[in-house]
Amino acid sequence: MAPEQHRGLHHLNWPEAKSAAACDSSTVVVPWGSLEQHGPHLPLGTDGLFAEQVLHQVLQALPPQLPIWFLPLQSLGFAPEHKGFGVSFTQPAEVMLAQVEAIAEPLARAGFQRLVLFNGHGGQISLLDVAARQVHGRHPNLGVHAWFLWDVDGVMDLVPDPERGQGLHAGLAETSLMLHMAPELVQLQHAVAEPPPPPPAGLSLEGRCPGAWRTNALSRSGTVGSPRGATASLGAALHEKLVQGWTTTFATLLGSSWPPRRSLESSDRV
Asked: Does the keyword Metal-binding belong to this entry (predicted)?
């Protein structure tokens, strides 16, 4: 059994899973990706591969006694922006919200205290945040966290300008990380650089003051940014920063009583 497999909730029988739920601070993590085009040089499953593999590295780095388990990767995500590039999958927002509830409900009923949605796809950050709030509203004793893989302090400092701001999809960071993690899946000979057009001052594609966008309005190849100059060494540095950052965050969560848990009072009810 691989070092991280003892933390697989799906590897436990039901009495073991019931005992796991009863542990103080019991936490379940679901890595979430998307099956979508990543330019002509990266695989459809890029986001899920990153989320799953970084999570497994984090779980190996955490002390073995900590009460944290994971469920299998959820590969199908919300990615309507990538329609128009061959085989890119997406599910309706309401289906994905129902999917999160279907995962959360038995965990809450069993007595698990936390659910972390560990997301590798930028296009579903807001949707998973909505899902977390909706699920927590239905199951107040289950703390729900929607975390985005790349939200680690300092990780994008490793990416030089202008790619730091322009590399939204299949650019330098993702290509380098894949060269480090699964180089056999990268076809650099097909890589194309297509930085996005600059938005008017004060507006943005992502970040502050964003608007909805379709990839095929920004790019012919599906790449939004530039993978040129991507290296496995940059990918290794990104990987190390991601694993270190998330190991610290998970350890902090598991060592805390966050989020606050208390019985609903009349003043809390809407």
From this structure: yes
